[in-house]
Recover the amino acids of this structure.
């Protein structure tokens, strides 16, 4: 009985921890910024490409953010993730070709 209760408690704790990591709604989607613009796919791609540099700068500056909240939604997200994949998957492709040789 104690073992079953312990497993149930751990499962519940795991579910709660995973729920805490879920992304929330972005209320600024499709809301223009102070200049009247919303970022789309190409801006998302660019932000994804420069994300490693932007992240380092954001640690030392309050004026730099890694992700633009005033965006067009899914297309910006797709571009952002595609840019991140382009940056971080370059070494994996080279390693795969080198191991075949």
């Amino acid at each position: 009985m104690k073992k079953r209760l312990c497993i149930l408690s751990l499962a519940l704790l795991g579910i709660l921890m995973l729920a805490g990591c879920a992304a929330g709604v972005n209320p600024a989607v499709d809301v223009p910024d102070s200049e009247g613009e919303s970022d789309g796919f190409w801006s998302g791609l660019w932000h994804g490409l420069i994300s490693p540099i932007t992240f380092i700068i954001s640690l030392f500056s309050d004026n730099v953010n890694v992700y633009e909240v005033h965006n067009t939604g899914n297309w910006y997200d797709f571009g952002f993730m595609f840019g991140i994949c382009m940056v971080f998957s370059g070494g994996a492709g080279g390693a795969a070709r080198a191991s075949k040789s």
